[in-house]
Each structure stands twice: as C-alpha cells, then as structure tokens.
Amino acid sequence: MESNITDIYQRQNQCSFQEYRPEKSTLLKWVHGTSGLCLLFLKRTEHRVIPTGRLLERRIAPITGEFCSGISLYGINQYATSGMKFQNAQALQTVWHYATLSTDYERYDEYLIGDIESNLKKVETSVQNEENFLHQPLLKRLAINVLRLRQLDGGEKLYRDKFYDRIKNLKGIERIENYLLYSRILRMRKRMEVAISRDEVELLSHDFDAKLRFSDIPYDQNDDLLCYKNEAINAHFCAFIANQVHQIGQKMSKQDFSSFIFNIKRSEDYSDHKWSVDKTERLLHRDIARITKAFEDSPTPICFSKEEVERIRKTKFFPLVLASTKIEGLSEEGDLQESPVRHSLLLGKDIDVLITDEDHFKEVQQYVQEYGFEKEVSVFTNREFEHISGRKFN
User: Fold this and answer.
1) What CA–CA distance (Å, rounded) separates 40 from 65?
2) How many CB atoms sit inside 10 A of residue 296's CB?
3) What is the pTM of this model?
4) Which of 54, 61, 220, 222 is the most buried (most CB within 10 A)?
5) 3-state secondary structure 139-188
C-alpha cells in the first residue's frame, strides 16, 4: 500500500490535477463530517483543524460543525478531532449525516445573544443557593457562546453592553468547591471510605442501599448526564462493597480485617472507581480554567471582520467531508466506532481530500486553489465519489 501511495504522488508531479484524483479516492483512511462554513474558520487557524478543547484553551470558539461537540466533560473533541476509519462500512453514511445537519446562520448574532441570555439567567438563579450552586455544563455553554459573540465584528461591544457586568457578578466561578459536580466527587470519595470502614459499616446496619446511594437528579437537560450515571454506578459499587465488608469483615480480628481491606483497595474494581473519581476532578479543574478564560477582559485572539460576519449570515448551509489518505485515527471506540485524531490536522499535509455536494463543488475547489492547495488537496462531489469508490453516502 505504501508503494502505491508513493507511486501516486510521483505521478502527481507528472500529470494534471484532474488525472490523479480517481486513484487518490481509493486510498482514504479517515473521514470527518462538518459544515462548509468551517472553511472560513480554517483561515483563522492557519488551515488547521484543532480540537474544541485546545481552541478553548486559547480563548477561541469554533463557529460550526462537529467541532462544537467538545462541550461534554468527557467528550472526544476536548482533546482530539472525532472521525471514523474509512474502512468502516458505516463511515461515509455516518459522517455525511453529521455534515448535513443544517444550521441557520442568517441571525447568528441574535441566536448567540438569545442563548447567552437564557443560560445566564439559569446560572444567576442557581447562584441564589448557598453552596455547590454552579453547574459546569451551563457555564461551559455560556462561556463558548460568549467567546463566539466576542469574536464577531461589534460583538465585544454587545458583550460589554449586555452581559459583562452580570457575568462579573458571578463570584467564585474559578473555585472548584462552588460547583455541583464537585459535591458529587466528594460524595463518591466519602462513599468509598464509608464502604470499607468497619465502624461506619456496622453503624449502617442493614440500610446500605438507602444510605450509600443518592436521590438528587440532574439539574436540567443541560446537566452532564454521564456524570450523574457515573455517580449511580459508584453508589451501587459501594453498596456492594459495604455488604461484603459487613457480612465477612464483622467476624474478623482487627489484624485480619486490615488485611481484608488492604486487598479490597488493591482490587482492580476498586482502583478503577478511584481512578474514575480522580479523573472527573481533573477534567472539572480543566473546564473551570477554560470557562474562566472566556470571561477575561482582554479581547479574543481572533475577530471576524464585518465582511466575514456578513458572509457567515449569508452562507447557505452545505455539507463538507474532511478526509485523509495519510492518517487513520486511534482505535475505534464507542457506539459510533469513532477513531479520533489527537494532533491538529493541517490542510494539504493531513487532510488531502474534500467532499461536498454538487451545488458547492466549485466554491470548495476555489477555496483550495485560492490558498495554494490544488496540488495537495483533491475535491469531489458526493455523487462523483460514490461512482469512483463504490461507497454510498446514504
């Protein structure tokens, strides 16, 4: 296969751009679906596809596409760009589905203002509680849309006029102890301590389930349900351990009981639960840092000009698949069998195939030629690619 790729690129230097395109289409390894509007964003990132989390660390928010799915605390796009191995039979259908999820950008700034207002009101309401009042998913969405607004021409003034003072009044967003998720982290740690404590377990008697589990439910649809499910799993595990300690450990001597608990702590299940709790705390610290950065006083690193903002509003949605003959992504994971790529992806070097619909083929090809990628990047329509590769998009 490597020799075939080498031959193709050697022929590329000897023949026209059009002549080697069909051969290149048969060598795809990795695909990702997004909106064609990402081309405007790529101009500002030196033609690099960068994971959402990495962008947020730089106080930059993506404006479109699958890149925005890094909102979840555990999301792949926090540290990598999601995609699929081309050899997966469902790859084209899946990424084309994401690419064709339509978004209306005609009133983009109005949408951002409305969403910021809605989420800010929810945060302000939660702040009225005395402790553990901040909800990381709400603040994360608020922070991302604040960055999106501030990146637009005139957006910084809108932010200052409408939201700046209210957000500055949100005291303590940089402190982890003020977050609801942190109270869950502490509960999980306490639960694990109680489950293996001889005195505590004896005091619990036969009411393990009621006292080791929990009754609070997610705050609203914006809450991170995965965090909630993780606590539920932790509670069930601790109830099981507590039962074992109570049934077996109560008859042991103090020395034997210490050895018994030592072995529990060394077990793979116990270590996995402790690692999961520690990981959640690390991820929360990371997200709090990104949230805090979004509200800093200094201007955002990028700002779309008035002309670019008008183009965002006027751009009619169209699908775009970013593909590569050079990278494969990590091992497939999750229900969608995603194969993320951890490093940034440079157009031309890493991404060397673009696929769109017939109506926007010329627009994408013009972009490729305008920025000097015509020798490295091949552009196809979805119908043309189906004909050449024999693979279907839907």
Assistant:
1) 12
2) 9
3) 0.81
4) 61
5) HHHHHHHHHHHHCECCHHHHHHHHCHHHHHCCCCCCCHHHEHHHHHHHHH
d(CA 197, CA 257): 10
Model confidence over 376-385: pLDDT tens digits? 999 999 999 9
CB 33 within 8 A of CB 95: yes
Closest CA to 62 of 349, 337, 304: 304
Strand partners, 134: 179
Cβ contacts of 219-225, under 8 Å, gap ≥ 24: 219/126, 219/135, 219/138, 219/180, 220/122, 222/119, 222/122, 222/135, 222/137, 222/138, 222/141, 223/135, 223/137, 223/138, 224/72, 224/73, 224/136, 224/137, 224/181
Query: Residue 130 has which token pair?
Result: 């005395």
pLDDT over 80 at 20, yes or no: no
Over residues 298-313, the pLDDT tens digits come to 999 989 888 888 877 7
Distance CA(162)–CA(180), nearest Å, equals: 27
User: Which tokens go with 255?
Assistant: 């020395």
Spatial CB neighbours of 238, under 8 Å, sequence gap ≥ 6: 191, 192, 194, 195, 212
Which two tokens mark 384?
């043309």
**Segment 123-138 mean pLDDT:** 77
Could you give the count of Cα atoms lying within 13 Å of 80 in the half-sphere of its Cβ?
A: 16
Residue type, 271: S
270: left (phi over 0), alpha (psi -120 to 50) or beta: alpha
Decide: 389 and 26 in contact? Cβ < 8 Å: yes
| Two tokens, residue 385 | 């690619």
